[in-house]
Amino acid sequence: MTPPIDPAAPVPVVTPVPQDPAALQRTLARHPRPLGGDPLRSAGRPLVSLSGLILNNTGPAPTPNHLAPKRKPDWLRAKLPGGPGYERLRNIMSEHKLHTVCEEAGCPNMGECWARGVATIMILGDTCTRACGFCNVKTGRPVILDTDEPRRVAESLALMGLKHVVITSVNRDELKDGGAGIWAETILQTRAACPEMSIEVLIPDLEGNWEALQLIIEARPEILNHNLETVRRMYPAVRPQAKFDRSLELLRRCKDAGLVTKTGIMVGIGERDDEVLDLMDDLRAAADTDILTIGQYLQPTRNHLPIDRWVTPETFARYREQGLARGFNVVESGPMVRSSYHADEQADRLSGAARETHEAMGRLLNHR
Predict the structure, then answer these.
(1) N or C end of the chain: which has fewer CB within 10 A?
(2) Which residues pair with 198 in a beta bridge?
(3) Non-local CB neighbours of 244 within 8 Å, separated by 6+ positions
């Protein structure tokens, strides 16, 4: 039997054994690995890309590919954050202890948007219960539910003085209602504090809890967005905890309830052009969705899904043409497009396709 420990007894001093440099070198020779930093830095140049085999299911590529990050083309350039507008918005976010998807997901448009006082507020914390292959928001089990968050969001938005706001959230699958109660309260308090501002929400799928969804519908946001993110075939790799048809059903229910509906996808992550067109057909036939956004996938870290291709501006223009031809009221399609399209843009700053988009958004908001 082990004798009890005497708390008053002195703590023995352990003298470290001197390390033999020769023994250390023999160990490193048997088990080579870097002593710190990026473990892939010294891994050598890969010889083959797995994205063509796993995501595209096309078999061996006709030309050698590799897993090293692909160099961005000239048309993908984002402005660095800075300026008085950016600092003002950052200070408001910090003072009210708010999260933004701009920061959490590393949005490339953050500098430009924040400089003109526009951001996408992220509620329900900064920890997501899902682990999507493309997303840079941290994953885990959230420790708290902040019931005071709706008040702080409403007060901060009143200070910003915006015409239009986008509110999104992490997934909170550990909650019985998926966070729908906080969602509804945030919309209601924001409308009370900012009656002249239109509210766009980007919501999760709530695991198909349609009673919880009804709470959000009854709060009547001007635009309800739920992103499909990618084509049906790629859900197991891109959104392993989601279901393509469940997301379509969510959009259908919101449309049937009289809301303006919106969704967005990324391209360049392994889909084919014909699959993008099939997705458009599904959205129109099954959910009669009003607004579609399409942008280039950008790999956040080496731990996320690799970029399969850089989609050209000309291809994005064709996506837009095909979407409008299928009956979408608005199609925002371009390399830097993200789902949080803002209707606060001034028409005199726009031209061409951007002006058409702005005018169509205005018609949707004015006839909701």
Answers:
(1) N
(2) 164
(3) 228, 232, 235
- CA-closest candidate to residue 340, choices 245, 205, 203: 203
Other beta carbons within 10 Å of 322: 17
Burial class (CB in 10 A: 0-12, 13-18, 19+), 126: middle
pLDDT, block means (10 residues), the chain with 368 residues: 50 50 62 42 46 46 46 68 60 63 53 58 89 86 90 88 85 96 97 92 96 98 95 93 97 97 95 97 97 92 88 96 96 85 55 78 76
Pairwise CA distance, residues 149 & 153, whole Å: 6
**DSSP label at 199?**
E
The radius of gyration of the chain from alpha carbons, rounded to an integer in Å, stands at 24
Q: How far is CA 108 from the centre of its chain?
A: 12
Signed CA dihedral, 80, 201, 210, 233: sign only: negative
Q: CB-based contacts of 352: which residues, under 8 Å, 6+ apart?
A: none
d(CA 222, CA 197): 10
Q: What is the pTM of this model?
A: 0.74
End-to-end CA distance of the chain: 78
DSSP state of 284: I
Tokens encoding 15: 């003298």
**pLDDT tens, residue by residue, 77-111:** 655 555 555 566 667 666 666 655 555 445 555 55
Handedness of CA 243, 245, 246, 248 (dihedral sign): positive
Judge contact between 187 and 216, C-beta under 8 A: yes
Q: Which of 51, 148, 367 is nearest to 359 (CA)?
A: 367
